[in-house]
Amino acid sequence: MDRVLYVAMSGARQTMQAQAANAHNLANASTTGFREDLLAFSAQELSGPGHSSRVYSRLDGAGVNLAPGAQMQTGRPLDVAVAGSGWIAVQAPDGGEGYTRAGDLQITAAGMLVTGAGHPVLGETGAPIMMPPAEQVDIASDGTISIRPLGQTPEALAVVDRIRLVDPDAASLSKGTDGLMRSETGAAALPDAAVRLNVGVLEGSNVNTVDAMVNMISLSRQFEMQVKMMQTADENDRASAQMMQIG
Fold this sequence. Notes:
The chain is of the alpha+beta class. The chain contains two helices and 16 strands. β13 (173-175) and β14 (181-183) form a beta hairpin. The chain is elongated. The protein starts with a helix and ends with a helix.
């Protein structure tokens, strides 16, 4: 009985973790630049005296789906989307460098250029970009930011900074709890001149809502099956105990 209960219990536990990750993906299906979380599980034998009769589910690790999301035209001058591979470098909450595909840029009251999530966008030198008061802001495909200062003619454009665009090896990146990608080595990625931006465009989430809904139903049925196995094991144990009392 304990063998059946052990297998069902470990399977149910990992199914709950998978369901939580799937629900998180589904909740962010409309989040700009969101990257789908992936979980990998495997069967692990429990070694010990006698036969290896107990097998439990093991979480091998969490991954990220780096496939690009759909790009949507907005026409907003501060909306940008990375064309092809690459990332926008931002300052993470811990002060380190993080990477995102969310290009819904905004200018705070203090003049700092940030993403929609509030992460400061980094410039060429690695410092957050500060925007002076301007009547017009233009972002070029290479990330160069130009402005028309207050009271100046349209011809009087001034370059403020250039968005730090990087393209590190995908295998060296991991996703943090804040949704930002980071280098596993902790080193900042070098700017890549080949990375380009589409202006007036936003990249959506790469979560497939239909697949996520089907996966949610499948995981729910798996969990119910595992709970049923635990109930059956308990019923068998009670029946065995009654038989022993009769004897």
